[in-house]
Predict the structure.
Amino acid sequence: MHEPRKLYVKSFGCQMNVYDSHRMADTLAREGFVETQDPAEADLVILNTCHIREKAAEKVYSELGRLRKQKQEAGSDTLIAVAGCVAQAEGAEIMRRAPVVDLVVGPQSYHRLPELLAEAKAGRRVVDTDFPVEDKFDHLPAPTREATRSRGPAAFVTVQEGCDKFCTFCVVPYTRGAEVSRPVAKIIDEAARLVDQGVREITLIGQNVNAFHGEGPDGSSWNLARLMARLAGLKGLARLRYTTSHPRDMDDDLIAAHRDLPQLMPYLHLPVQSGSDRILAAMNRRHGRDNYFAIIEKIRAARPDMALSSDFIVGFPGESDADFEDTLDLVRRVGFASAYSFKYSSRPGTPAADHAEQVPETVKAERLAELQRLLEAGKAAFDASCRGRTFDILLEKPGRQAGQLIGRSPYLQSVVVNDPPAAIGDLLSVTIAEVGPNSLSGRVAAPHPSAQSRPLAAMEA
């Protein structure tokens, strides 16, 4: 009997990459691969890359350098694959700069991994970054019950890929292609299977998830609100989330869903990028600050306990001190529970990369530091406001100390619970007692009324 081959997958970037990494592992499980957390013992290493953040490609090349050294010192024949958006954007360049790489595969070709690996195993260096006609989701296998349990009670489901917005700083339309929505029936089947295997929380993901317009069972086009209403009817599914959204697609149906669906968590990630109308126009965001304020007002009217998160880019080409002050003003007016902020970094092939008015690095660094101080103060204030409140916590994994379990609040905060009378996969009512910089901790108030013994609760066994 042959020893199983071992697979190590490292994901960079967004939740969609985490989902894609799981689907690649599920595909390769059929080929006899089992996952390992140690790249040194792997027969196949896959770097699933992201091209959104600053110096993303260089981080990949640095990782490839470590793998090359490790492979040489061990004298191994480990195959090295680069997947994801850097692979899509720089396939031939990766092969030129990193001879250690055997295979480059874009996000639309993961279902072809077995045949591509066979070519690589035969000694051919393979690049597959096409946008195939067939739907990869039709060919990717479902995870086994054991794989789902090992990943915990919260899962991602991709419902939409690609983007048609063409923000001038972003490579997604070029690396992921045009907006495509999956059929409703296939999404429901995937979600129902996950829930049957013990998943309690599903996050619907897409590069522009609230632009979802999948074909429904009746042949009509369903929007995201209608899809979530259908998923909320799945017995055993306690929580729904979705990310990442664009303000242009935040319609009244979706806002009403936050009011009407108890399963939909009161937490919304809605990237704004800048508070300046002039910069938003230069970014081709197709919304203004007043549009954003109006959306926030509607959301909070529908769901007063809503918490908000966002993305910000500072130092976009042409950004003046006044433009930056508009961003600070927007942050103060909205009040974010959390946020991600970055210095602008050019992406080859995007319109903003060739803009004549590039902001000096020192100015970008100063502005980022000031913005992050303001955002961190907002997060600290929101976390502090949670002290004494009682939340339903979904228990997800063991804590660092014996008897501890860690879960997530409705607002995605990490919550430490000591000696809970429950198991992973259960919902527990917890009163927040302490607020730390990275997590909250609390005491058990009571089991949630929907908490019940589930297959996932025994995953540690």
